[in-house]
Design brief:
By secondary structure, the protein is of the alpha+beta class. It has helices spanning 39-43, 71-78, 84-94, 101-122, 134-176, 183-186, 210-224, 265-272, 294-307, and strands spanning 4-7, 12-15, 18-25, 28-35, 60-62, 67-68, 96-98, 123-124, 230-231, 233-241, 248-251, 261-264, 275-282, 285-292, 313-321. It is elongated and about 75 Å long. Associates with the 60S ribosomal subunit. Residues 249-319 form the Ribosome maturation protein SDO1/SBDS C-terminal domain.
Length: 326
């Protein structure tokens, strides 16, 4: 057990072998002292007993100096009537975990490996439908990371200048009592290409889950294409009663101002399927097995729920098909 020494009457608490969780609230910074390697376990839901997480069930202004937070400072920041346990839980859940440089580097390496493995399993070569090795994915991400900083600054500078210019125009218009329509409203074209924002990759962090960071990495790889990549398609089995396959449904218009088009339930379902593997009618049920882009799966599910009232079903057979069926 790590040692703790309380010096009275100054209430200075000295702790050893400690991990700190720090949260800035208002204008003050509050800290709690935790046992090493227990905070992440608690946040992941594996550890539920606070006694196994906290070295001292108290709130500090500075753990390393043993400076306990005064009650008036706590109430000013968190509000009156909030219990000490609630404050500790907020710091524990939302605060930033302070660890040593060695531990931080090890955690970054672990998250980096996990992100690369997730990405390698979800992206494929668009032509061969085969996955890349983790080494190739890692090199592609490193390339994006080295380009991310300057690209981000340039994009931010461009957008900031545009926003400031627009703000000045609006301010001037407000002072004169008139409205100044934008170039887009006037239908003016100055020949300049509209800048399109592309997601960037600046490397992993320990503040977000590997899964969410892998999604960001995939978006950046697809947007910038340092190597040819595409999301691996999902393989679905879609079943629907034949009695409703020919029912007419309204389809969204192709462009603004046009009348909604009409089509059958079957036509609409097949419009989501990039490649049909098999389709057959068995008794009173139609079945289709095929490949769908991940981005279309949610829209397909919404259509099935609303237009067929849940009588049709889309079952995921494979979350990420990484190679064409022979």
């Amino acid at each position: 057990m790590p040692s703790a020494q309380i010096n009275q009457p100054s209430n200075q608490i000295k702790l050893t072998n400690v991990s700190m969780v720090r949260l800035k609230k208002g204008k003050k910074r509050f800290e709690i002292a935790c046992y090493k390697n227990t905070v992440q376990s608690f946040r992941a839901g594996h550890e539920t007993d606070l006694d196994n997480v906290l070295q001292i069930p108290n709130v500090f202004l500075n753990v390393s100096k043993g400076q306990v937070a005064p009650n008036d400072e706590i109430q000013k920041a968190f509000g009156k009537g909030v219990s000490r346990d609630e404050i500790i839980m907020e710091i524990l859940k939302k605060g930033e975990l302070q660890v040593g440089e060695k531990e931080r580097q090890q955690e970054l390496e672990r998250v980096h490996r996990e992100v690369v493995e997730i990405v390698a399993g979800r992206l494929v070569d668009p032509k061969t439908k085969r996955v890349y090795t983790t080494g190739m994915v890692e090199k592609a991400l490193d390339q994006l990371q080295s380009q991310g900083g300057s690209a981000g600054r340039q994009a931010g500078k461009g957008h900031g200048g545009e926003d400031r210019s627009q703000s000045r125009e609006q301010s001037a218009a407000g002072q004169s009592g008139t409205s100044t329509p934008s170039k887009q409203q006037n239908g003016e074209a100055d020949g300049e290409e509209k800048k399109v924002f592309k997601p960037k990759w600046t490397g992993v962090s320990t503040n977000k889950s590997a899964k969410s960071q892998a999604l960001e990495a995939m978006k950046a790889l697809i947007a910038h294409q340092p190597i040819p990549v595409a999301r691996a398609r999902m393989r679905l089995r879609i079943t629907c009663p034949t009695s409703i396959l020919k029912q007419t449904v309204k389809l969204p218009p192709k462009s603004e101002g046009e009348e909604p088009e009409k089509g059958s339930v079957k036509d609409k379902i097949l419009s989501f399927v990039e490649q049909v593997e098999t389709q057959d009618v068995m008794g009173e049920e139609w079945e289709c097995v095929g490949f769908v882009e991940p981005g279309s799966f949610k829209t397909l599910g919404e259509f099935i729920n609303t237009q067929t009232k849940g009588r049709a079903v889309a079952e995921v057979l494979d979350m990420a098909v990484t190679q064409e069926e022979k």
